[in-house]
Amino acid sequence: MNLLLQDKVVIVTGGSKGIGHAITHVLAAEGAIPFIVSRNEKSILETVEEIKKKGGKCAYALAELTDPKQAQEAVNNAISEFGTVHGLVNNAGVNDGVGLENGDAEQFINSLKKNLVHYFVMAQACLPYLKENKGAIVNIGSKVSVTGQGRTSAYAAACGGRNALTREWAVELLPHSVRVNTIMVAESLTPLYKKWINTFANPEEKLNQITNKIPLEKRMTTPEEIANTVVFLMSEKSSHTTGQLLYVDGGYVHLDRSLNTLS
What we know:
The chain is α/β, with parallel strands linked by helices. The protein has 2 domains: 9-186 and 222-249, 3-Layer(aba) Sandwich (Rossmann fold); 190-220, no CATH class. It contains 9 helices and 7 strands, in the order βαβαβαβαβααβαααβ. The chain has helices spanning 18-29, 41-53, 68-82, 105-133, 144-147, 153-172, 191-197, 203-211, 223-234; strands spanning 9-13, 33-38, 59-62, 87-90, 136-142, 179-185, 245-248. α1 packs across α9, α3 (68-82) packs parallel to α4 and α4 (105-133) packs parallel to α6 (153-172).
């Protein structure tokens, strides 16, 4: 399927690692120009080189997204280089474990800055160009916002905020034909996920316990599977889809728990 993304400029925050890395690669493979915004120069340069070796296009700006001025400047850099922006993927964030019993107000606020506030800042900075192009925003969310996890109040609150902003922006931007959706991620074996798994005494056993509870094929969702859905939502092929929270999770969140007992 031709997703009609040739030479469309799409900003991807955190686009050089994990799910963001996969999104950047899929966008480039579809002929789009991913513009990575991240603070990790090493991983950015590696990702840009990977894409260029495959014949694709990719550009970037270094920014600490908790600083609104740097976030705005990153968008300005994209505009200076390409003249416009057609899409935004808000992806950057981290489940930082700031909980009710293991965190304080300052840590909670800082976590919201790392995981939610820059979603708003980036959307606002891109908005004139998204309106002009009838573009799209895709937010990356998490099951934590609807299931809870324990000991991660700040991240859960941030992800809940992402869901609310998705619906709010979808309504606000209806007159401009700008579509806004969220991909809800459950269990995907990203570098950060591997780091968390390795905190357990028996990481392999813990990983098996989790994958055995994923209904479809008893396996993790790959970053590429998430990226494929993100890029579809970014494209004109999803032209009448907005305000949705789409779960790319192998049925993990919603399917009957009795399935876990089936072989």
